[in-house]
Amino acid sequence: MASPLSPQTITCKAAVAWGPGEPMSIEEVQVAPPQPMEVRIKVVATTICRSDITLWESRGHIPIFPRIFGHEATGIVESVGEGVTDLREGDHVLTVFQGECKKCRHCKSDKSNACETLGVEGNGLMHSDQKTRFSINGKPIYHFVGVSSFSEYTVVHSECVVKLSPDVPLGKISVLGCSVATGFGAAWKIANVGKGSTVVIFGLGAVGLAVAQGAKLRGASRIIGVDINPDKFERGKIFGVTEFINPNDYKQPTQEVVKEITTGGADYCFECVGNVELMRTALESCCDGWGMAVLIGVPSGKMELSAHYGPLLNGRTLKGTLLGGWKTRSELPTLVEMYMKKEIQIDEYVTHELPFADINKGYQLMKEGKCLRCVLHVVI
């Protein structure tokens, strides 16, 4: 029998998606206590990521509903499960969709951040026991990538959170849980962009602009943004974009435009949309010999990439990245520290702030391309 001090089930409000593309419904849900090696978090702020929309619409993906989305968030540990030793009630944390067990082959290697134990959860259930911690009147409600931050309380594996110092503001920094860390790391860590190089970024959302910031800090001399939304061009300059290409302004394919203005192709190209045709365009926009195309976007439709072997045979490299290559618990704190020292921009990615109840408005703003990141303030 549980002792009086054991965590009990909490009833709170959450934004539940009942079916693909259906508006979120604010419901009262039951959140079970954390199980061994888990923590229950009181969510303070959460942001809407493009992948929240892609999987909500279930384009090209297996639909898992009813579900609570959300994975970029900050909050306060409310209770801890058995075996958790490095976190305690009251700790401030940042959630991440991929953990770091520090024990598996990948966690021990300096070549990977793909934890074998706590990789991206894809079936809507918790890693530990393949069950859900959410329910409504006994009906299971599924998780999203092990986080589900569109809820006043959520349960997360303790090795899928980053502990924050109490002086770190719990709000806009939630974007470091996915988008900004992913883009920044793709340029800074995965590509290791060289000084004086030419970079082309396909897609100027939050991820693409984070690539621009990382490339700028690495010393890139030309950072070319490619997007069909001209409204993003001025904002791109804030993060280091020096030139812009709107494919709709040209009759020839974008890769030919890039090759023409770069005299043979870019040193680095980053695909930040999740379009497989654009991925091929990125590869073909690279120069021979050393050009590198880095794939970041999550596909929302066709998922098979086909490309001619020629560019690869001629020395180009095609790479993929998840969360920018960062080991979550041991390396993401470095980005938090850089933010606190004002060495990197974070707040500038947040263009809208809304109360949690307006989550559907936030989704619409994202779908229409009217915002980079929208912070939802979760008031309990």
Automatic annotation (TrEMBL):
Q: Which CDD domains does this entry report, sorted A to Z? A: alcohol_DH_plants (cd08301)
Q: Which UniProt keywords apply?
A: Metal-binding, NAD, Oxidoreductase, Zinc
Which SMART domains is this protein grouped with? PKS_ER
Lineage of this protein's species? Answer: Eukaryota, Viridiplantae, Streptophyta, Embryophyta, Tracheophyta
According to the lineage, what is the superkingdom? Eukaryota
Q: Name all Enoyl reductase (ER) domain ranges.
A: 19-376
Q: What PANTHER family has UniProt attached to this entry?
A: ALCOHOL DEHYDROGENASE, ALCOHOL DEHYDROGENASE-LIKE 6
Entry similarity comment: Belongs to the zinc-containing alcohol dehydrogenase family. Class-III subfamily.
GO CC terms for this protein?
cytosol
User: What is a single molecular function from GO for this protein?
Assistant: S-(hydroxymethyl)glutathione dehydrogenase [NAD(P)+] activity
Instruction: Please give one Pfam family short name.
Output: ADH_zinc_N
Name of the protein in its database record? Enoyl reductase (ER) domain-containing protein
**BP terms from Gene Ontology:** formaldehyde catabolic process
Tell me which cofactor or cofactors this protein depends on. Zn(2+)
Which organism's genome codes for this protein?
Picea sitchensis (Sitka spruce)
Subunit structure, per the record? Homodimer.
Gene3D superfamilies with a match to the protein in the record: Medium-chain alcohol dehydrogenases, catalytic domain, NAD(P)-binding Rossmann-like Domain
Q: Does the keyword Zinc apply?
A: yes
